[in-house]
Description:
By secondary structure, this protein is an alpha/beta fold. The protein is globular, with a radius of gyration of 17 Å. The chain has nine helices and seven strands, in the order αααβαβαβαβαβαββα. The protein has a seven-stranded mixed sheet with strand order 3-2-1-4-5-7-6, sandwiched between helices. It starts with a helix and ends in a 6-residue tail after the last helix. α1 runs parallel beside α3. β6 (about 190-195) and β7 (about 205-210) form a beta hairpin. Mean pLDDT is about 95; it is low at about 225-230. The chain has one domain (about 5-210): Vaccinia Virus protein VP39 (Rossmann fold, 3-Layer(aba) Sandwich), CATH 3.40.50.150. S-adenosylmethionine binds near residues 79, 101, 127 and 145.
Amino acid sequence: MDKELFILETNKLGIDLTNEMFEKLEKYYELLVEWNEKINLTTITDKKEVFLKHFYDSLTLCKVINLNEVDSLCDIGTGAGFPGIVLKICFPHLKLTLVDALNKRINFLKLVCEELKLNNVECIHARAEEYALKNRDKFDVVTARAVASLPILLEYSIPLVKNSKYFIALKGNEDTNESKNALKILNSKILKEEKFLLPIEESNRTIIMVQKLQNTSGKYPRRFSEIKKKPL
Length: 232
Ligand code: SAM
């Protein structure tokens, strides 16, 4: 995806991309490719592909929510920063928390925040399920892209979400029927399910927006409180 098409497509998502934002995305791309030589961050390194499959794809979250009206956002299993860092570049007001179980990726994200001068970003080395145990009802939006199946993601993320706020999953193809039980146990409901094709390569995408209906503290399934895995 070249610059012209990226600007056109992000405009369609309601994003008013400034020169400064585009320059930060380019700098982020350079850091990604540079550090990918030392630590495994992405299999996609071609610039046009990164702009399409990582940057634009991350921003499609804007299809279901107006991020100008969101204060705090947590991206679990963020990896090299998708969608978290891309959203922060385009919506600098966000109070962003990035969580990943791999410390080398967290160290890369700290470096990106420093180089790009991104303020109000917390980079947390933890498993999402452990982080959630001590950070309940904290965020307006929790996101996850390519991390786990939807029932597992719900278990990890819903405790982190404030009452009546949202978990948003960026997926390929998804059968939400398999999540019915998890949604019920966690007092949550699917608010929106947006299916579309990624421009150019036309692969399937599904964005699932889940609303936490009421305070579920103390009502999580037993399995949730029993997870004792250590960060990698
Ligand atoms: N979200 C990024 C993306 O879209 O490119 C990364 C996807 S990568 C396939 C999955 C990431 O989730 C890895 O960085 C892995 O360390 C992290 N991860 C997997 N399970 C996790 C967990 N339970 N808690 C925190 N991070 C986890």
